[in-house]
From TrEMBL:
The keyword ATP-binding does not apply. The lineage of its organism: Eukaryota, Metazoa, Ecdysozoa, Arthropoda, Crustacea. This is EF-hand calcium-binding domain-containing protein. Keywords: Calcium, Metal-binding, Repeat. One of its GO terms (molecular function) is calcium ion binding. Residues 80-149 are annotated as: Disordered. Residues 2-37, 38-73 form the EF-hand domain. Residues 108-117 have a biased composition (Basic and acidic residues). Pfam families: EF-hand_5, EF-hand_8.
Amino acid sequence: MNDDSLMDRIFRTFDHDSDGYLTCNEWLTGLWIFLKGNVTEQTTYCFQVYDIDGDGYLSKGDLFQLLKSSLRPAIAKAMPFGQRGGNEQTPADSPRTARSHRQITRGQTEEADKEIDLDLVDEDKPSGGPTAAVMGNNEDDPDEGPRDLSEMALGLLDRDMDGRVSLEDFLLSVQNDYLLMEILGSCLPSGARAAAVLAALSGNGTLPISIPPPST
């Protein structure tokens, strides 16, 4: 997790009473979702993180902002050096989120599906490689790629075709394809890291304390 804006959203999602602090119960509830949450609990949590304005829906604007932030490292490296901001050294997003980005583009064309492989993005590839396929080829408009991806993502997630993504839409989409859970940015630990934390807490992979399930 290397996106400051997404980290802020994660904190706000943990902070149920919005007082700027985490109580013990809020922290344990967050840990439950991180370490032992089921698919529905983790999907609901991801949706709440992605819901930037807290209105219960993901708009096309929400999708654009999140995808732009998630793709920022690749965008920065693809730009001419003199045009780069301060993010060119930002670590790339997680392989799981990269695979989610690939999933958005899947089905556009058979040729693109064969070409796009973001598990190991090679930012030195010439135009037409995976970075260009995701970001677009217009160097004068670095927002082109995220904008195109946001339109694809909306079509992929908007199950009832009302122009926005509800929690129900998101749950159904993830139910059909687990990779879509973190489609808009990494906000969960990997399974290996979650297991490592559990092991560190207890020495045998089980928690020595009873973490309460998330309150409804």
